[in-house]
UniProtKB/TrEMBL annotation:
This is Epoxyqueuosine reductase. It comes from Deminuibacter soli. The gene is queG. Monomer. The lineage of its organism: Bacteria, Pseudomonadati, Bacteroidota, Chitinophagia, Chitinophagales. Binds 2 [4Fe-4S] clusters per monomer. [4Fe-4S] cluster 1 binds at C186, C189, C192, C247.
């Protein structure tokens, strides 16, 4: 039988081949400290109307309930920092949404990784997750040595900043485990806290999700946004990058090499007027593979009207 070291090396080598910029592995276990923190966050209502955050609490904090017999949690990072950013007077869009929907891109890579692992090792039970299931991916990223959790709630790498997606693969295979990332290099810096347009980032590494621009422009489905947030969105109408843009560690961000994340020309170049004149038919055709389809045409119109004070 091939040994644990071989399996571990195989997974990390394959992750690089698939385009991931980091692969770290942690021992599957219940995250007791994170469970207490999540419960407190939920009790304070910081999830707003994201009721799905209240569901499957035990699954979120214990990977062995997601994959019976789970022994390892594999964390993979995929860089999405773009070659170029928006150069238009149009409303601002978070960089992660410039290209194709990352859920589809990463899910294919995860399925490929698990299939190749099964072909090499034999019977391996596992499940891959991409920001769409009850997994505390940032905690597992820190546990696997990817980086530290910054004051803005993002995983930050000294070498690469924070513009990357986090994917998680839970398997019932014993592997070699990386050391948790023990240091915190945010220091006394408070740029993300000071710069947040809606004051959603609080001291103590707490982000009030119910105040975040990404929550209002993507998660919240109400057709009317709160009046007290009018004029505070700083022209962001799908997501927000302020806390990452001001982070000193993102000076180390390098453009991604994933073809699927090539920015759509419309996102880079559309003026406010072009967004306002866009029909639903055009929206569906242009953004059929884009994360923007998550807000649907009606949501995009709502956001546009709100940030422009209409």
């Amino acid at each position: 039988m091939k040994n644990v070291s071989f399996y571990t090396s195989f997974i990390k080598s394959l992750s690089t081949e698939l385009g991931f910029s980091y692969c770290g592995i942690a021992k599957a276990r219940r995250l007791d400290e994170d469970a207490r923190r999540l419960e407190n966050w939920l009790n304070k209502g910081m999830h707003g109307k994201m009721s799905y955050m209240e569901k499957y609490f035990d699954l979120r904090v214990d990977p062995t309930l997601l994959v019976p017999g789970a022994k390892s949690v594999i964390t993979l990072l995929l860089n999405y920092y773009p070659q170029t950013t928006q150069h238009t007077d149009g409303p601002k869009i978070a960089k992660y949404a410039y290209g194709n929907d990352y859920h589809e891109v990463i899910r294919e890579k995860l399925n490929n990784l698990l299939l190749r692992l099964q072909e090499t090792v034999g019977e391996v039970n596992g499940r891959g997750f991409v920001d769409s299931a009850p997994v505390l991916e940032r905690s597992w990223a820190q546990q696997s040595g990817a980086g530290w959790i910054g004051k803005n709630g993002n995983i930050i790498s000294k070498q690469a900043g924070s513009f990357f997606f986090i994917a998680t693969l839970i398997v019932d295979l014993e592997l070699e485990y990386d050391d948790p990332y023990a240091k915190d290099f945010c220091g006394s810096c408070t740029r993300c806290i000071d710069s947040c347009p809606t004051e959603a980032i609080l001291p103590g590494k707490v982000v009030d999700g119910s105040k975040c621009i990404s929550y209002f422009t993507i998660e919240l489905k109400d057709m009317l946004l709160p009046d007290n947030m009018q004029q505070r969105f700083d022209n962001w109408f799908f997501g927000c990058d302020v806390c990452q843009d001001v982070c000193p560690w993102n000076r180390f961000s390098k453009p991604n090499t994933e073809p699927a994340f090539t920015p759509l020309p419309e996102i880079l170049n559309f003026s406010t007027r072009e967004w306002q004149e866009m029909t639903e038919e055009s929206f569906r055709a242009i953004f059929k593979h884009s994360p923007l389809k998550r807000s649907k045409y009606a949501g995009i119109r709502r956001n546009l009207k709100f940030v422009k004070g209409g």
